[in-house]
């Protein structure tokens, strides 16, 4: 039996903190969680209850379904969701498979997909598990620890705001699932919601990134506390996430284009505040993928690269980067699961078509210091 | 109970005739039925039995599913189907809806979609009903009498040759179904197979185009007989279909482009053999839509416009039109169901975005003669 009194409730204060934390963990992508937060807050005010339970509270045979938005973040900023898409996905999946879902799980804690599971779960009267499949944001559906470690994400259900529903009954691979769902979401107007095939509690305990919600909320709360104390929010993020500032400077060049549904480009930063005479650059595909110093790659995906406004400590998403912004570049270590060989094939530099080896940022740091 | 001894069997000779008849009824589109015929013949040679039963043999409560190819005809010429796509669609639909299918029906008798129902039905051990939803070929899914007269074609199942399966669980309209399925078939490589939501025997008796298979086969047999007798196959087509030759001449200009997944264009024909000094033109969107004489529209969709090689009597599909071809243009009256107001909204000139009124070709003929 699932202990539904375990874990913690999400209130409006925690939603605000989650918004900040999810934006940082979005590493430039994943969409801005602000709109999602407004929808979640509205649900709270209507009396829906949002409970996050720890992985340990989940029975091994629990039936857990992941829910998230799919499509272009920019579309979801302009076209508000109907609201019940996630719930319709879960109900259709239950009917199609003749199952009863016990809990909802998050695919992607970075960006706006942190909010959808809370909204859907509260409407369904279910808890959300305190974990996710990325520990950050990634641009494609197959880039979850769930898929990487063997979960077949079909059958899945995709619902749009108009009322259309599509079941991806079987895909011969996770990449094919992504390909078909991506084409379909474009036909549906660019921003839909998807629920994937159920996973067991046992599988999640082994292959999810644990404590994503509590981590993201704690991170947001640290930033809020630092701001209230007029302390440095960037320092607070580094302390909370075991990260480090790798660069400070002004954006002096920005190449950015939309290609194949992705934002791609490079941002160049002229150093100051201890980085004078250095040029930092960040390579982008929706998310920040590689940070280089004077042309040498130093922090590489799946480690997290976050570009922050140097004054407010607010994370800047890739579509919001502008010439002249004064920024700090942070590196945060990714979860060890993402550093496994199987994961690096999918979410390491090669997974993004980059001819670059992955070096864990902790090691890179050590190697860099002596020089 | 369904009388499975009713109707007739399709043998190799009838397949050959069907290929010819379906090409004529394709009115320039629907894809060349040759490849489909080869697949159907192979199934016959493997021992599968193809039975076509009359509408009257169908009980009112029979569960009938339509099956057809969806995608670009040219792709299906180059990439041979796996073979079991239609069967997988039917089985997935049966499982999803917990039903048992009694018979298969054809969406589109014109072009290569005449063959798929025979192949699928024979593999499933089911009969094909002697009717279809167009009586010709049309480019989009919602252009069937089934959809026009109120059948909701979802849930439907689409399978590709790779092994992927998608269920369109619910579409808010037939056009939305078309839009999502079209996007998905492109992602699947451009040529998949789709089975639509079941229809009852009662519905089909009222709203299908009856006797499509026997008509197409009889038409093909008339052409074969004319060729064997060194008679005029074009005359044979007109006699069989109550049609008339409206033009003879040489193709002197051809504008054709691929736009939004459709072949669009105009073909100009300089008259001869009684049409000297006249210029005929045919407007194309996959199928032949409008025949005009000296700039005045004379035969208009949904009436059938067929361009034939003047020597062999073979139908020329729109992608095979070439400068210098010597052709006859035939007009064949469409089925009365397609001339209803409801049908003309969808498959009349306005359904194709043409600012043109529909005049039944019989009437046009009468009006033209006195002048």
Describe the structure.
By secondary structure, the first copy, chain A, is an alpha+beta fold. The first copy, chain A, folds into 2 domains: 8-212, CV3147-like fold (3-Layer(aba) Sandwich); 241-368, CV3147-like. The first copy, chain A, is 32% helix and 27% strand. The first copy, chain A, has helices at 12-25, 34-45, 73-78, 85-97, 116-124, 145-148, 174-187, 201-207, 212-228, 233-241, 341-347, 361-368; strands spanning 8-9, 51-53, 63-71, 103-106, 128-132, 156-159, 165-170, 191-195, 199-200, 209-210, 244-259, 262-271, 279-285, 287-293, 296-300, 304-309, 326-332. In chain A, the strands form 2 sheets. In chain A, strands 1, 2, 3, 4, 5, 6, 7, 8, 9 and 10 form a 10-stranded mixed β-sheet that branches. Chain A has a 7-stranded antiparallel β-sheet with strand order 15-14-13-12-11-17-16. In chain A, strand 14 (287-293) and strand 15 (296-300) form a beta hairpin. Residues 364-371 of chain A have low confidence and may be disordered. The A-B interface holds A 92, 96, 157, 162-172, 176, 179-180, 182-184, 186-188 and B 92, 96, 157, 162-172, 176, 179-180, 182-184, 186-188. Strand 7 (165-170) of chain A pairs antiparallel with strand 7 (165-170) of chain B.
